[in-house]
Design a protein that fits this description.
With 162 residues, this protein is mostly helical. It has six helices and two strands.
Length: 162
Amino acid sequence: MASPDPTAPADSDLPASVRPVLFCGSVLMLDLLRTYSKALALDAESIWILLYVTQQSMQPFLLDPDQARAWSAAPVVADEVRGWVSRRAVAEGTGLPRETVRRKMAVLCRDGLLVEDEFGRIRVRSDGWEAEYLKDFADQISTAVDRYERRMAMIGDFISHA
């Protein structure tokens, strides 16, 4: 076992898990942002908006166990079970300025990543996604989460054996 660092403070009010969680969380966020940025060629604010809208679009059917089972492998999820969100809700949910949300969402709609209905509500598009693309994208996200979990376990071992 390695000897403790003599320059480290002997006592602390900070739980030992706080810094490792913050470190690993930042690494995970960077991994995910790189993955989304590379796959979709978007800036960070657009990714944030797209993620929020995607979550709102998918939440109604993925958080309902029966709907999740029914739609999990479908090539396209029916519009009737998908959610919508307003620009105002996106601004409030992300903390981004309304004007930024409006401008970025206009581009995301123009580029076909988001769709708008006749009432001005927005959601992620449901069709036109290639299955192989989505599977590869999901694998990249899963790999980033796995790296996060391994780092957390490794750092947890360091701390518990110190």
